[in-house]
Recover the amino acids of this structure.
């Protein structure tokens, strides 16, 4: 019976979690170095409040009780649901179960291609 002398090479580069992170937009291509020893963690106080895009087309209200309400120009039904803080991101889960990742970047939120800033009082 012939045997192969070549070593087994596993060509699997990405596992399911990595592929999911890429699909959900959670991978930043600019990061090429090792992970920081102490990654920045978002706290509830950092994101609670009113947020809006510069043009006003997207509005998001994150409440202290873990619920949110949002509006997107052109959509009839406002978005409502709960949110969960996960490391450097916030995950919105609407009443239908749809989950939307929101990245936190230097005092701004990035959601579905929109940059949200704290809304003026």
């Amino acid at each position: 019976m012939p045997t192969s002398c070549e070593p087994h090479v596993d060509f699997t580069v990405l596992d399911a979690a990595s592929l999911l992170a890429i699909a959900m937009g959670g991978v930043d291509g600019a990061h090429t170095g090792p992970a920081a020893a102490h990654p920045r963690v978002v706290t509830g106080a950092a994101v609670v409040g009113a947020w809006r895009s510069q043009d006003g087309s997207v509005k998001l209200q994150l409440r202290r009780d873990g619920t949110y309400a949002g509006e997107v120009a052109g959509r009839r039904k406002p978005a409502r649901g709960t949110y969960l803080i996960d490391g450097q991101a916030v995950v919105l889960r609407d009443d239908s179960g749809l989950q939307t990742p929101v990245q936190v970047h230097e005092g701004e939120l990035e959601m579905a291609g929109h940059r949200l800033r704290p809304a003026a009082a």
